[in-house]
Every structure is written in structure tokens, then in C-alpha cells.
Amino acid sequence: MKKQLFALLFALVPCTAMAAGGASVPYSMEPDLQDQASLQNGMKLYVNYCMGCHSLEYQRFARAAHDLGMPQDLVEENLIFSSDLAYNDQLHIAMDSGDAEGWFGAPPPDLTLEARLRGTDWIYSYLLSFYKDPSRPTGVNNAVFDLVAMPNVLEPLQGVQEKVCAETDRPVEGAELDPLTGKYQSCETLQVTQPGEMEPDEFEEAVYDLTNFLAYVGEPSKLQAQTLAPKVLIFIFIFGVIAYLLKREYWRDIH
Fold first, then answer.
1. 153-192 as b/e: b if 16+ CB within 10 A
2. Is residue 109 assigned to a domain?
3. Per residue in 60-104, pLDDT tens?
4. Is the dihedral of CA 155, 157, 159, 163 positive or negative?
């Protein structure tokens, strides 16, 4: 038995190491699937800014509307812009995959499972890390995904973000030593130089909502599970009390 337990332990160690070995990202967020307002705003942002290129093939308007507490007429009026789409359809896009491959080099991926594939921290950091780069075809690059082909579709909300150089006395990652001043110069700090429609805090909240929505889309049943969990625990507690009292009643005559 001990040998079997040790074998199981050693088998799990590589899996644990692999799960913990993801690339580091500058920002983190904790999804809150119980924040209905956040999820509703995230869906609105997705439809308005992301769905031009990225589909959600495994998610239906009707399912999202039901889970997020949105009436059907409101969804049809404000979130379904194409006559080819209906309330019970998946979130398809009109872009042809062949045309997309010619324009971008590869068709934009479906994002239904993106949060499960990359994690919410990666998506959140990615959306916050676009910066101006005139050398790129789209005019922008990304600090998390270098040489990204995607344009910064959220730029009207965020504004223009650029890398800003700063001097420091101590070496930091990515900094270069200036032989004239003897100081290290780092140009990795991102700063909004041309404001957009939102203040920085508002934009970060909007990106949180969008990432939160993608976390929901990746596993819609998790929302139902979290809602059902307290009821299940209450049932188990009540059943446990009844079972204990019944056990005492059965064993009273024996003892």
C-alpha cells in the first residue's frame, strides 16, 4: 500500500511542476462569477469590440442571457447586430476565415476556451499591455505577446499607450547601463500619453469585466455550480443531523 502511495505521489509531482511553470504576467485578477453587473458589461464590451473578429462558437446568446439575467428583447436590441444571427444562435462572426488568413496571416482564434487555455491573468495583462510601435503593421505591439498581429481594438477607450524610459541606480530586468551617466535606463514602463474615453481606473475595470466574461464563457456550468453549492452544503448538514439522530435511535436498544 505504501509503495502505491509513493508511486502516486511521484506521478503527481511533474504535473504540479508543469502547472506552476507558466509564463509570468505583470497583472493579476480574480474572476467573480457572482458579479452579474460585471459579466453583463463584459458581454457588452465583447460584442462591441471583440466580436468583429473573434467568435464564441460554443456559447449561445440565449444561454448567456439566461445565466447573466438579461431579458431576451434587450439582448436582441443591443447585442445582436446582424440579421443572420438569432437569439438562440452561437456568437458567430461574419468574417470569412479565408479572408482573415489573407489579412492577418492566420484566422483570429475562437475565444470560447481562451480563459481555460491561457488563464485569466494572462488575458487581463494582455489587454492592458498594448503600446504604440510604429514598426508594426498595426502600429502597436504588446508587452505580454511580442510581435502581436492583433490591433489594439480597445484604444478608443484606453487611449494611446507608449513605453516610457526611466533611469535607476540599480539594475533591473530589461534595463541597459548608460556608460556616460553610470545609471541604468529601463524603457519597459507603459504609460498612457494620449487619453482615451476612459480614465485609467475605469479602463482597468472595463478590462476586468471583459476578462470576467471570458472566464464565465470558458465554463458556464461553474456559475450554476457556485450558485448551487451553498444549497448542497445546507442539505448535507441537515441530512447529517437527521442521519446522526436516526443512528442514535437505532443503537439505543443495543447499548
1. bbbebbbbbebeeeeeeeeeeebeeeeeeeebebeeebeb
2. yes
3. 999 999 999 999 999 999 999 888 899 999 998 888 777 777 777
4. negative
Nine-digit cell string for 248: 442514535
Please give the Cα distance from 218 to 46 (Å, whole number).
14
Please state the domain count of the chain.
1
What does the pLDDT read at residue 30?
96
Residue 202, C-alpha cell as written in the block: 475605469
Three-state SS across 95-111? CCHHHHHHHHCCCCCCC
Q: Which residue range is the domain that position 148 belongs to? A: 30-237
| Any domain includes 247 | no
Q: Work out the end-to-end distance of the chain between its first and last CA atoms, rounded to an integer number of angstroms.
A: 36
pLDDT of 16 reads 41
Q: What is the CB neighbour count within 10 angstroms for residue 22?
A: 11
Please enumerate, as own/partner, the contacts of 219-226 that have beta carbons within 8 Å and a separation of 24 or more: 219/116, 220/59, 220/63, 220/64, 220/67, 222/33, 223/33, 223/67, 224/67, 226/33, 226/34
Which helix (H) or strand (E) element contains residue 91? strand 90-91
CB 168, CB 186: distance < 8 Å:
yes
Share of the chain above pLDDT 70, in %: 84
User: Which residues are registered as beta bridge partners of 190?
Assistant: 163
* In the predicted structure, residue 225 carries a pLDDT above the cut 50: yes
What is the rounded distance in angstroms from the CA atom of residue 29 to the CA atom of residue 117? Answer: 16
Looking at 46-199, list the stretches that DSSP marks H as alpha helix, in order from N- to C-terminal side: 61-68, 72-78, 97-104, 114-118, 120-128, 155-158
How far is Cα 166 from Cα 159, in angstroms, rounded to an integer?
Answer: 21
Residue 154 within any structural domain of the chain:
yes
Query: Residue 158: which CATH number?
Result: 1.10.760.10
